């Protein structure tokens, strides 16, 4: 059986912490990506039980009864960014 030393244990902990930080960053990036894609998908649908649009609003929209969607500019602008501490979607 190999002898364990304080130095080898410290190296193990350092490598483990680095692995945890990389996994945390990956999880934040993936979560932000999923949220951004869902935000893009849902604009213009009724998937989240949006309040009904007023008939006058519907009549004035090029896309009809499509909550949150008119030209697609807002949907196309949704982006995400993440680091190992936090993520942003907007």
Concise overview:
The protein is mostly helical. The chain has helices spanning 6-42, 55-60, 73-77; strands at residues 80-82, 87-89. The protein has a two-stranded antiparallel ribbon.
Key words describing this protein structure:
mainly alpha; two-stranded antiparallel sheet; rod-shaped; 2 strands
Structure description:
The protein has a two-stranded antiparallel ribbon. By secondary structure, the protein is mainly α. 1% of the residues are buried. The chain has one domain (6-89). The chain starts with 5 loop residues before the first helix and ends with a strand. It contains three helices and two strands. The radius of gyration is 23 Å and the shape is rod-shaped.
């Amino acid at each position: 059986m190999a002898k364990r030393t304080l130095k080898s244990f410290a190296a193990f902990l350092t490598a483990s912490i680095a692995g945890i930080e990389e996994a945390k960053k990956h999880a934040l990036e993936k979560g932000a990506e999923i949220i951004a894609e869902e935000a893009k998908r849902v604009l213009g649908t009724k998937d989240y039980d949006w309040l009904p649009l007023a008939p006058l609003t519907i009549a004035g929209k090029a896309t009809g009864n499509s909550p949150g969607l008119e030209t697609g500019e807002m949907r196309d602008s949704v982006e995400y960014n993440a680091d190992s501490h936090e993520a942003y979607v907007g």
